[in-house]
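Let's practice the habit of predicting before peeking. Look at the sequence and jot down your guess about where helices and strands might fall. Then scroll down.
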Amino acid sequence: MSKLGKRPISIPQDIKILLNQNEVIVEGPKGKRNYFLPAGIKAVLKEDKLFLTRASEEKQIKAWHGLARSEIVNIIKGLREGFSKELEIVGIGYRAQVSGKNLVLYLGFSHPVNFPIPEGITIETPKPTQIIVKGIDKQKVGEVSAEIRAIFKPEPYKGKGIRYVGEYVRKKAGKAVA
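Done guessing? Here is the structure:
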């Protein structure tokens, strides 16, 4: 049995879980999400715990067992607390601001970069050089953060660009003059 998959999922008081054949519907204070279980994985609800079982010992089904449990735990956490990622902008004159449904980035290009904010994601800019991406879907928060970072990745010579808070950028030595 999968070490992770066999552990029961404890359900908090403010979360409701409904089971429909191979679908798990989770409702919480921040919204409602559903997750379709992979083939060969079954969910059983007993009191305030959710158990996942698998039909066979195939390698792929074993892998899906732990994955399904992790996905459901992340959905529960997202509906209770939400997820967030912080990015920082490094560079003189580089800044960001939210205007309407767009994140406008001034990164030294000849024009400002407009990044449309996807549905289900909120972006805040408490400081001009700080971006906070929030949402209830962990995967979507990470994906949007990566897309924003990809607009101007930190370069290795001066360290300018968009990076995650706490990310270390290894600096290279510049061109040596003879």
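How did you do? The two ends are 64 Å apart (CA to CA).
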